[in-house]
């Protein structure tokens, strides 16, 4: 399943450095009229289960790009075909790459490999009470729709887990946005990493829309990794559909 718990987060486990981003400040206290964290998370899990039943298959071509600025300036790009099937899971095929071979091999290929690894054990990486603690910190309008903001803390330092804020659509209880950092530093050479990702509702199925991963390298230099998700070719209960995901900026 293309969810924010897996797809965008795998991109941070790389040899990257990015300009730091500022997370929104945590509100002092949530509105007492808001649902509890347990209620929101329960509805979120119900949504995910329903979506998993609906989505049988999809195919898409993603465009990965990384730009590094330090003592030198480098960039690399890669197009990757991803296929999801409810029985066999995800598979990836690199279609093309250009630019710095170092960045393609050490960053972009590792991004794909990380997602492949995480997809084989979704239970240990999912945004669930088995892996995270949740706290309601407020609400916000996103794209004209109300959403709940949850602060999430991992229950262990897993390399595919994260801490930060998650926005849950108040109508459908789907994960709409995350602004997080990894629970465990992926490398000694990285001093900080931050991730911003969004999902979008397309005909009732929430799909990855944008991803931007940010880190700083201990020896200096910065880089930006973005993923453009392109068009999805879906099969919902056996009915093929095509949708377009917005490109990351």
If you had to describe this structure to a student in words, what would you say it looks like?
This protein has a single domain, classed as outer membrane lipoprotein receptor (LolB), chain A (Clam). It is of the alpha+beta class. Strands 1, 2, 3, 4, 5, 6, 7, 8, 9, 10, 11 and 12 form a 12-stranded antiparallel sheet that branches. The chain has helices at 7-10, 37-54, 101-119, and strands spanning 55-69, 73-85, 89-99, 132-142, 145-154, 162-169, 175-182, 190-202, 205-217, 222-228, 231-236, 239-244. The chain contains 3 helices and 12 strands; from the N terminus they run H-H-E-E-E-H-E-E-E-E-E-E-E-E-E.
Q: Could you write a compact summary of the structure shown?
A:
With 249 residues, this protein is an alpha+beta fold. The chain is built from three helices and twelve strands; from the N terminus they run ααβββαβββββββββ.
């Amino acid at each position: 399943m293309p969810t924010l718990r897996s797809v965008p987060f795998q991109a941070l486990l790389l040899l990257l450095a990015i300009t730091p981003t500022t997370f929104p400040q945590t509100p002092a206290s949530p509105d007492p009229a808001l649902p509890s964290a347990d209620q929101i998370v329960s509805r979120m899990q119900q949504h995910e289960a329903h979506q998993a039943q609906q989505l049988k298959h999809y195919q898409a071509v993603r465009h990965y790009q990384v730009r590094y600025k330090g003592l030198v300036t480098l960039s690399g790009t890669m197009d990757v075909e991803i296929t999801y099937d409810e029985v066999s899971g995800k598979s990836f095929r690199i279609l093309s790459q250009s630019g710095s071979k170092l960045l393609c091999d050490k960053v972009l290929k590792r991004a794909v490999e990380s997602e492949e690894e995480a997809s084989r054990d979704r239970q240990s990486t999912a945004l669930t009470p088995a892996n995270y603690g949740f706290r309601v910190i407020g609400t916000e309008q996103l794209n004209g729709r109300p959403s709940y903001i949850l602060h999430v803390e991992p229950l262990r330092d897993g390399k595919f887990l994260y801490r930060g804020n998650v926005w849950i659509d108040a109508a459908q209880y789907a994960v709409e946005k995350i602004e997080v950092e990894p629970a465990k530093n992926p490398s000694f050479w990285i001093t900080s990493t931050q991730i911003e990702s969004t999902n979008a509702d397309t005909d009732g199925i929430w799909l990855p829309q944008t991803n931007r991963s940010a880190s700083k390298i201990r020896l200096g230099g910065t880089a930006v990794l973005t993923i453009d998700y392109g068009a999805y070719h879906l099969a919902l209960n056996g009915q093929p559909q095509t949708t377009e995901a917005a490109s990351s900026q």
